[in-house]
């Protein structure tokens, strides 16, 4: 049973502190040759917090954190939380235009990044007013793992329900990126909520969690915090490269992994994957996008793990639904609402009428994980949070047993000749073809139909398939009006840093071609 009164007294730093008291000698993090126990991690965090405090960082200051997956990210993250600062998540792949937008929108007074990012930083004029800290100075001296002779830290002063811990920018897959304000209470509650779903499968202090998704993404950031909650060992890889991930799996035998469907697809299709490589996993969690049924089945067969499909969004910290551990498995379902979460399906037009099981509508949720709001965007906040309910923008259907199925996004829905087509449904069918590795479908303007469905498909290595053959495959499984009118084969798809396919980028690309 989750006690929110207890959790409301716990900041993110105090969550770390709690684990250190209980499991001081447990290995907290492995980053290549570097390893820290929980006690050593806290010492590094407090030391860097002291450095930041002496330089003037105070409660409420916003700190841009633009680091890849590394031990420096973890130490910096918790050092800022120790002082009551606000982490502004910044993708290390961002270029000057994107950095300028973040600096203009969030206006961080501090910025932590690698020295190799300096060429970008000096080109953005707004950085003139920002205190930039590089992880290593010009003499290659580590700035995060500085050791101070005397710890000089203020008392912990966090109002967990009010104080923002993280500003997490949305992926921008459906429009301009917005800063989601997540409080300490949001994050601490959500990791306990999602953790409760697989509590019976994991043992505190004994697990090894693979950290391959980018920490600057909400899904991975909360996974890191959940690792601390579980007193587990966090095995970091800077960037997802299937070959290196398989090597890490063989070396450390992780018991849990969180990744996107594209990551699991890459592992399952890797030519060097051995039959027992994935057997070390107790739990595999898939997030950021629906996992195709065929991929889920293959993952279950090769790992023997409990596969948790789920649903979430940055505006709800990350998680709102999970596949029940000991419940019925329904292929294609994101499961049921997690602990302390209410969910409803409402009509798309007004968002006021709750729909019965079996009818498609917009998914709305309520719970302690719902964001405080969008940073500096009160009007946008009011549009998505109404009477405490978060309007997700996702189209879903609920069955009689309270299992939810995501069928698409409101903005993704294609209307061809007056008929509604949800790309996710069509992609599910395309993924079932044995030659298909990845696929993305989307609507493009059509003078006759209004819109027509376009598909971009990636084939498995060595596979051969024509557009006509794939269309015929689809015709045997879904209504003819849902079959893509155009099928294009490519070598790769545009994706976010966690592997979520950027449908919007493909739409924009097609739109630009149509204009020229």
TrEMBL record:
Keyword Transmembrane helix: no
The protein's name: Long-chain acyl-CoA synthetase
Entry GO MF terms: long-chain fatty acid-CoA ligase activity
Entry EC no(s): 6.2.1.3
Keywords noted in UniProt: Ligase
InterPro entries: AMP-bd_C, AMP-bd_C_sf, AMP-binding_CS, AMP-dep_synth/lig_dom, ANL_N_sf, ATP-dep_AMP-bd_enzyme
Keyword Ribosomal protein appears in the UniProt entry: no
PANTHER family per the UniProt record, alphabetical: LONG-CHAIN-FATTY-ACID--COA LIGASE (PTHR43767), NONRIBOSOMAL PEPTIDE SYNTHASE PES1 (EUROFUNG)-RELATED (PTHR43767:SF1)
Residue span, AMP-binding enzyme C-terminal domain: 425-500
Ranges for domain AMP-dependent synthetase/ligase: 16-375
Pfam families noted in UniProt: AMP-binding, AMP-binding_C
